[in-house]
């Protein structure tokens, strides 16, 4: 079996995507906490030695460093024959929602949550802009999971793992109470949490936490 080392920090939803995927596939990994808040990923040394793109997460597989969460999820899905598309049509739908999530949902929620919760004086105009965009994207997901149990139909895929990661964090971080604002999303998150082996990010990813500023 391959050996895995995951470079992460607990608040990183992208790190959580890989930690959860490995866990749901019955794999263990060595956690490598990274001082993102201290700026280590922006140092020339870290970009030279760990990830030239300057991003977290990094997954080491038998010593080979892999970066960019979406292709790693797809690679793991193929390797373990789990959470992938079983037909050409399913694979297209999976990629459609995965790319939408990366560009829209994860992209905006990760940034909104970080500025809102983990920066001392966020610009209210910036937060308002991001919130408005997020509300639009969330309305799309809300309508979709009203009609579908998961992203591509009746079973979960890596698209669901990707979409749910940043949404599952506590309400005082995201600024959303899903049960009130988006009941279908809340129910979908509940279905994801029922998967055998599911754990939250803060249960899977130990280590020093970022300073929390949101009230």
TrEMBL record:
Q: Which UniProt keywords apply?
A: Transferase
GST N-terminal domain ranges (all copies): 2-84
Q: Name one GO molecular function term.
A: transferase activity
Superkingdom = Bacteria
GST C-terminal domain location is 87-215
Is this entry keyworded Chloroplast? no
**One of this protein's Pfam families, by short name?**
GST_C_3
Which Gene3D superfamilies does its entry note?
A: 1.20.1050.10, Glutaredoxin (3.40.30.10)
From the Swiss-Prot or TrEMBL record, give the protein name: Glutathione S-transferase
């Amino acid at each position: 079996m391959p050996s895995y080392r995951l470079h992460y920090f607990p608040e990183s939803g992208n790190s959580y995507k890989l930690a959860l995927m490995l866990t749901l596939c019955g794999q263990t990994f060595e956690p490598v906490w990274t001082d993102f808040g201290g700026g280590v990923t922006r140092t020339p040394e870290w970009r030279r030695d760990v990830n030239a793109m300057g991003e977290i997460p990094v997954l080491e597989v038998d010593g080979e460093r892999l970066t960019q969460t979406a292709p790693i999820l797809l690679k793991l899905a193929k390797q373990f024959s789990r959470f992938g598309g079983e037909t050409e049509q399913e694979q297209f739908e999976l990629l459609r929602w995965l790319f939408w999530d990366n560009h829209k949902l994860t992209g905006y929620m990760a940034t909104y949550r970080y500025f809102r919760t983990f920066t001392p004086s966020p610009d209210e105009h910036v937060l308002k802009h991001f919130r408005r965009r997020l509300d639009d994207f969330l309305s799309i997901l809300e309508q979709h999971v009203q009609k579908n149990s998961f992203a591509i139909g009746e079973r979960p895929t890596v698209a669901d793992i990707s979409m749910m990661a940043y949404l599952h964090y506590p309400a005082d971080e995201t600024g959303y109470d899903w049960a009130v604002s988006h009941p279908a999303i809340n129910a979908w998150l509940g279905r994801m949490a029922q998967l055998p082996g599911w754990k939250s990010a803060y249960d899977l990813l130990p280590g020093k936490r970022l300073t929390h500023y949101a009230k």
